[in-house]
Design brief:
Length: about 110
């Protein structure tokens, strides 16, 4: 099991994915028509089909993406030490989001 995990970590490090996500230009992304037109089309389609669950998933994804780039998230680890007083709100927020997702997937029927 640890061999698979090490392969996944080495793949993520070789693609420099965390650095790429950190350097995303949000204003440039949401003013770029190559992103904005398909995104608006997706949201419009979901509204037309009244797929509220999927719209909530898109909102949750954008919210997590935004929150991961905030200054608060960047200061969770200072030096080599994890700041426990800052991790607990993130942990509880993640538990709330996970509860909402589980409720939407398994708790409701459309």
């Amino acid at each position: 099991m640890s061999g698979i995990w090490e392969n996944i970590i080495s793949f993520i490090e070789s693609t420099h994915l965390p650095e790429q996500i950190k350097e995303v230009d949000f204003i440039g992304l949401f003013t770029n028509p190559w992103f904005l037109v398909p995104f608006i089309a997706l949201v419009g389609y979901l509204l037309f089909k009244q797929k509220w669950r999927d719209i909530i998933f898109v909102i949750i994804f954008i919210g997590i993406w935004y929150a991961s780039g905030t200054e608060y998230m960047q200061t969770l680890v200072v030096g080599e030490e994890l700041q426990v007083n800052k991790v607990l709100p993130v942990l509880f927020g993640g538990a709330v989001v996970l509860g909402i997702v589980i409720y939407l997937l398994f708790g409701r029927s459309d």
